[in-house]
Specification:
This protein has ten helices and 13 strands. By secondary structure, it is an alpha/beta fold. The chain has a domain of 197 residues: NAD(P)-binding Rossmann-like Domain (Rossmann fold, 3-Layer(aba) Sandwich), CATH 3.40.50.720.
Length: 306
């Protein structure tokens, strides 16, 4: 039994991966609504409720924390979820695999980020993430932490390579380009993220540490736009969002919270995945293939929605 907490893009992609690997999968969210594949079941639960969480993970071999919290609520809600997880998972004896972000490191000065990069966050949200990582690793739980860069892929909308890029590209309109789009930048393909999390849940040697999940070699955002243009058969025009101001799907509240992380777009943002790839022998999907699949998903979504 695998239990997946959260039904955002990462959680749903992980459910697909785990079902494909033959596991029984129980999926948990607050709404009780989600489109899931056969082989998985949905349970409505608030994961910050320790008693309720303990009930839904009691028979799990591995628990995957893929919960999503809007930026504005992360500093208050994420520690509550962690409290609940540490208590419930500790009592169950299950392994815990949780998703982390690069915000815990703070600005790197352009140096590639590795698992040895100091947890020197400068943002409020990053400092909370850093404290949570330290607490997980000091908890004594059998836990593996999977770290991802900025997401893209099917189902991924709220991302600098999401709804601000693919839908306007399909319509021939300008796409968002945040900060300096000529700097090298790592992007994590969500199906790769899901596969990496599944592997962490299966391997004993994954426990007790951070792992940078597989990413394709970093290109500039401009080069990524050019690849999308080649897939679509026409050039991509970028509208440069050089400051954290509202644009497209990113409203004023979102960008106000994102401002403290905007350094992600003003210095090279490169994540080194060599520890994972050398340990587990698996690399990220080639970027052109991942972008092509993402374009196809957005085309299908556009037909469905409109």
């Amino acid at each position: 039994m695998r239990v997946v907490l959260g039904t955002g893009p990462v959680g749903l992609s992980l459910v697909d991966e785990l079902v494909g690997r033959g596991y029984a999968v129980r999926v948990v969210n607050r709404s009780g609504r989600a489109e899931l594949p056969e082989g998985s079941t949905l349970v409505r639960t608030d994961v910050s409720d320790r008693r309720a969480l303990a009930e839904v993970i009691g028979d799990a071999e591995v628990v995957y924390n893929c919960t999503h919290v809007p930026y504005a609520r992360q500093t208050t809600v994420l520690p509550l979820i962690q409290d609940s997880l540490i208590d419930a998972v500790g009592a169950s004896g299950a392994r815990l695999v949780t998703v982390e972000t690069l915000s815990m490191y703070g600005p790197s000065g352009g140096a590639p980020m590795t698992e040895r990069t100091p947890l020197a966050a400068t943002s409020r949200k990053g400092r909370v993430r850093a404290r949570m990582v330290e607490r997980y690793l000091d908890s004594g739980l059998p836990v593996a932490l999977g770290v991802a860069a900025d997401f893209f892929g099917p189902r991924t909308l709220t991302s600098s390579l999401g709804a601000a890029v693919f839908p306007p590209a399909l319509d021939g309109d300008p796409v968002a380009g945040f900060g300096d789009i000529d700097l090298p930048r790592s992007y994590t393909y969500v199906p790769d993220l899901a596969r990496g999390l599944a592997i962490l849940g299966e391997r004993e040697e994954a426990l007790g540490r951070l792992w940078h999940l597989p990413v394709a070699p970093a290109l500039s955002t401009r080069q990524v736009h050019e690849l999308i243009g080649e897939i679509l058969g026409r050039p991509i025009r970028a509208y440069l969002v050089d400051r954290p101001t509202p644009w497209g799907p990113f409203d004023e509240q979102f960008m106000a919270e994102y401002a403290e992380l905007f350094y992600w777009h003003t210095e090279p943002f490169v994540m080194d995945d060599s520890l994972f790839t050398s340990t587990f022998g698996w690399h990220a999907t080639p970027l052109t293939e991942a972008l092509r699949t993402t374009v196809e998903w957005f085309v299908t979504r556009k037909r469905t929605v409109f």
